[in-house]
Write a structure and sequence with these properties.
CATH class: Alpha Beta
Strand order of the largest sheet: 2-1-3-4
CATH architecture: 3-Layer(aba) Sandwich
Number of domains: 1
Shape: globular
Oligomer: single chain
Number of helices: 5
């Protein structure tokens, strides 16, 4: 199933995916790194393997720099994790991530949602936009003039 994902006709997660994500979020609390503990901090965690062709394709077609420089990336900077080396302690609670790449949106120490697989940059940006729409709106900056 590398590089494939399942969505309903409306582009939203299927009931099965939504139920699975809800159960996983409730049953498996994830430890939070001090870096992600800041109020409202969100991160997009990319679970990858060094030998994953779809991960390399994502890096070629989208890439870490393009993501972090985008509006979405500024709201949730990318954190790359090579699962071949094991999950870091702060992500040990993540479950059901069998396929790479898997992009997990974390906010305030909780999983908000995920994108499993990668097909193309066009699909990825659409899915990422829908995923980040689940985050609470960022407060407007006050003008300090």
């Amino acid at each position: 199933m590398h590089g494939r994902f399942e969505i309903s006709r409306a582009g939203a997660p299927t009931r099965r995916q939504a139920l699975g994500a809800a159960v996983a979020a409730l049953a498996c609390p994830v430890a939070v790194s001090s870096e992600d503990r800041a109020v409202g901090a969100a991160r997009l965690v990319m679970l990858e393997r060094h030998d994953c062709p779809w991960c390399r394709r994502w890096l070629r077609e989208v890439g870490e720099a393009a993501w972090n420089n985008s509006d979405l990336g500024r709201r949730a900077p990318l954190r790359r994790v090579d699962v071949g080396r094991g999950l870091p302690e702060d992500l040990a609670g993540l479950r059901n991530w069998r396929f790479t790449p898997t992009f997990v949106l974390m906010a305030e120490g909780r999983e908000v949602g995920r994108i499993t697989g990668y097909q193309s940059d066009w699909f990825f940006w659409q899915q990422a936009e829908a995923l980040l729409a689940r985050l609470p709106p960022t407060p407007p900056r006050e003008d300090t003039r």
